[in-house]
Fold this sequence. Notes:
Layout: E1 5-8, E2 12-20, E3 25-29, H1 35-38, E4 49-51, E5 56-64, E6 84-89, E7 102-112, E8 122-126, H2 132-136, E9 140-143, E10 152-155, H3 161-214, E11 217-219, H4 221-227, E12 233-237, E13 241-247, E14 253-259, H5 266-278, E15 287-293, E16 296-302, H6 309-313, H7 325-333
Parallel strand pairs: 11-15
Antiparallel strand pairs: 1-2, 2-3, 3-8, 4-8, 5-6, 5-7, 9-10, 12-13, 13-14, 14-16, 15-16
The structure holds adenosine-5'-triphosphate.
Adenosine-5'-triphosphate binds at residues 235-241, 243, 255, 257, 285, 301, 303-304, 307-308, 310.
Subunit structure: Monomer.
Pfam families: Fer4_20 (PF14691), GATase_2 (PF00310), Glu_syn_central (PF04898), Glu_synthase (PF01645), GXGXG (PF01493), Pyr_redox_2 (PF07992)
Protein name: glutamate synthase (NADH)
Amino acid sequence: MEETLLLLPNSVKLYVNKIDYASQLIIASDPDQCLPGQLRHFNLSTSPFKFGDMEQDDYAFFNCTSWKGDTSRQLACLSGPGYDIFAYFSSYPIGYSDLTSCTKMYNLSSIPREIFWQNNILHLNWSGPECVHCEAHGKFCRSKNNSAGLGTECYDKPKSKEDIKKKIEASVATVGSVLLLLVFFAAFRVYSSDKAAKENQKRIENFLADYKAFKPTRYTYADIKRITNEFKDKLGQGAYGTVFKGQLSDEIFVAVKILNNSTGNGEEFINEVGTMGKIHHVNVIRLVGYCADGFRRALVYDYLSNESLEKFISSEHGDASALSWEKLQDIALAWPKE
Length: 338
Ligand SMILES: Nc1ncnc2c1ncn2[C@@H]1O[C@H](COP(=O)(O)OP(=O)(O)OP(=O)(O)O)[C@@H](O)[C@H]1O
């Protein structure tokens, strides 16, 4: 596996295990697994780095043939057969340990304690170039082109093929959804307008059907004779003519009034028929048709099985209590007005 190397002054080479740009920290290790061996050559003052471990001490290094004191600062990777290398706190008095079989090698100051942990890990911080603000905005960081110092600038992360593919997919999905919505909307509009058009058509047809039903039909005298079955069933006699029962179909019965006065103005009769034909009210008997065949004139009404109103209101023909004065008032008020 290829390792990334960090080159420090005095040809010190370290492996880069991890870089944390957010906190500007490099975790490094010694390729020879012996960080204390590199200590003599460390000179970070001319590099942008400083030790990350702030617990630092000054040491005197000793080469001992025998050692009777604290072995926590014994540097195994520097020791050899018949001798051991120890780091001795410079702040300790010389008489603190027995150094009689030791030779002092050199002093080193401001050594981070983690060097002696023997896990071959060294934390190095850098203060410049400063990239924290780029990291915070999810961007990459680079040296400013025209800057001789440690000036940096942020730049957008280059888009990978995967990113571009995802972007295209997202755009296609968005456009697709919008198109689908438009298609649904258009289909809905077509369906609604089609439905409205059909409803309109139905309304017109219903109106025409109603109009046809309400418009009085003109009958010939022969029709009148057929409808009344040759004037077989006389219903009554009024001031203007004789009324016969008739039948238009199996279920539809009519009352046909054969008018006495056939000498009058025919046009007047037709106009009257036209006016009556337009009146449609629940309380007014409906004029179904008419006959104006030469001097023979007749009016065809819906058949009422309850005989004449006169029979109800006149005490002579019926029970007066059947139609009280209140009922008569109701009927009068419900009479259609023009
Ligand atoms: N639509 C009808 N259905 C059933 N019977 C009817 C109908 N119209 C009239 N008659 C019968 O025929 C009779 C005569 O009716 P008609 O309308 O000619 O005269 P009237 O209502 O008695 O009075 P007027 O001649 O003054 O109008 C009525 O009394 C009734 O018995």
